[in-house]
Specification:
With about 200 residues, this protein is an all-alpha fold. The protein has a domain of about 130 residues. It is built from eleven helices and no strands. α9 packs across α11. The protein starts with a helix and ends with a helix.
Length: about 200
Amino acid sequence: MIRRFFNWLRRPSRMAIGLVILLSALGGIFAWSGFNAGLAYTNTEEFCSSCHMNDVVPEYRASAHYSNRSGVKAICSDCHVPHEFFPKWKRKIIAAKEVYAHYTGKVDTKEKFEAHRGEMAAREWERLKANNSQECRNCHNFEDMDFTQQKTVAQQMHALAQEQNKTCIDCHKGIAHNLPHMEAVQKGFIPDDLMKKSEEKK
């Protein structure tokens, strides 16, 4: 019987080969679908809130990205996870370290989170600066903006940002979260060089 089994392995029938190929294909489809479903879940607001309910979620829910007159909402992953395949994977790998930091007690309380807020914010600002604020530009871009519908200061700042090749995060730090050690600042931070040029144009 054992000899017959090994003989079959050496010379399998076409039906057996077809069955193996079919089962492998189905297994691959189910595995990939399950993996993608799990990955998609890690992009949901529910998943992010499971760790951040006591620190950044209240800030986010007080921002225009959560609730506004148009009803267009950006969730956590819209700003913090690139849409492109390879940048998304890179971000997910880095995020795994952040989840590890939470569960090992480095930032598992509001007080610990606040102690590390500065370094975490700086990392995220650096990432957005490096990719030209791609996550912002998925929804906002200069080419589609009607400056005439904006307030005067916004028109001036956006025009200067275009001239100087600035990116969104240069001015809009703190747009959905408190700035480190500047919790009262919610509307963003304008770099000094842009502010001076705006004043000069008045």
